[in-house]
Amino acid sequence: MRSGFALSALAMFLVSGLVGCNSTDSPVAKLPYAGSTCVVSPLADVDHLPVINELPNPFKGMTGKLITTKKDWICRRAEIGAQAQAYELGVKPGVPEHVSAELQGENLVVRVADKGHEIKFTAKITYPKTGKAPYPAMIGMGGSWINNEELAKQGVAVIQFPNNDIAEQLNGSSRGKGKFFELYGAEHSAGALMAWAWGVSRLIDGLEKTPASQINASRLGITGCSRNGKGALVAGAFDERIKLTIPQESGSGGSSSWRVSDDQKAKGQNVQTSSQIVTENVWFSENFKQFSQSANRLPFDHHSLMGMVAPRGLLVIENTSMEWLGNRSAYTASLAAREIWRALGEESSFGFSQLGGHNHCQYPQAQVPELNAFVQKFLLDDAKADTAIFKSDQEFAVDKDRWINWKTPKLK
């Protein structure tokens, strides 16, 4: 176990990693939220974390104080990010020493140099035949499984991010493999999800530096399905330059709650839980294995990870037919996450659409209106787009007294 002092120092580094800033030796980490400054308290050793059976209150800070203002949420978000990195995802390194990019045909080649090592990766850009350059773009984690034809009709480009090149995810033997680990070492704490999030941030760096790409780097979305949907959520949570995040059927480790998934499993349903997921692949850090039998000791859950996207746009796409993904769990966690946007006065920037009767990662035509509305609002600047969406084709009985037993403040 780490000592309290070591975790305190780690927390300061994690806050800088949250937004891609360089680390600092100061006990204060500056975040790019209108000049705000946040301090993250020391993180507890795993053995000293209390059991929390409900979904942890996202509005209660690490000191036990409830937040009351939108400015408070800035630092609360930093706390959640630090906890997620320390206990589940591993550290997201800060901005590297050098990032450059060049367009080769429809491929953006990104080069990254840091600490005496250098890597490069290629992201393919598919341009729309309508719209006007520079184009807004949807980054697809390993590809995009939402309706790309609809994106093209609206003048939105699609960028394929090569996540498997950055961090391998074949099976449990993939840990430490991929270009991220060539740069930072095979023993780096990041699981594949956080390594991918770091890579997406470097892709955005490259787009910002390459006007020839004809991509509007201030109007970017991120999506992915299944395991890649988990990665899309993490990328959106940890880089504020992403205006719209669309995790699709991301399941446990994505939009589902570890706690509620455990509850579904305990009731005899075939649901992926933390105890299974740590044996399947390397999406999470080695530290997360300590919670494989005790997810209720995590000081956060994925309603709060989703909340890190707030007040930016988040559209959760789920499939009621996929019990393995934690259909009730995703519904419950999303109900809880929506309260964060509600507290910030931005409820319509959170969307949830859950529809069954189709194959995994097959985007139904019936969910296209939700996609179009969020794209129009967040990538095309259409303030009139109706994104007040929360619907499912199945009724899940949610015991709010058990799972969401905290009050939603009206943050000023």
Description:
The protein is 32% helix and 18% strand. It is an alpha/beta fold and 412 residues long. The strands form two sheets. The chain has a ten-stranded mixed sheet with strand order 3-4-5-7-6-8-9-10-11-12, sandwiched between helices. Strands 1-2 form a two-stranded antiparallel sheet. The model is unreliable at 1-35 (pLDDT under 50).
Write the layout of secondary structure elements.
Blueprint: H1 4-18, E1 29-30, E2 37-38, H2 70-89, E3 98-104, E4 107-114, E5 117-126, E6 135-141, H3 148-153, E7 157-161, H4 163-166, H5 179-184, H6 192-208, E8 215-225, H7 227-237, E9 242-248, H8 258-266, H9 274-280, H10 302-307, E10 313-318, H11 327-343, E11 350-354, H12 368-378, E12 389-392, H13 400-403
Parallel strand pairs: 6-7, 6-8, 8-9, 9-10, 10-11, 11-12
Antiparallel strand pairs: 1-2, 3-4, 4-5, 5-7
Helix pairs in contact: 1-2, 6-7, 8-11
Features:
about 400 residues, alpha/beta, Rossmann fold, two-stranded antiparallel sheet, about 30% helix
The top-level CATH class is: Alpha Beta
Strand numbers in spatial order across the main sheet: 3-4-5-7-6-8-9-10-11-12
CATH architecture: 3-Layer(aba) Sandwich
Rg over C-alpha atoms, rounded to the nearest angstrom: 20 Å
Q: How much is the average pLDDT?
A: 92
Elements, N to C (H/E): HEEHEEEEHEHHHEHEHHHEHEHEH
Strand runs, count: 12
| CATH 4th-level superfamily | Alpha/Beta hydrolase fold, catalytic domain
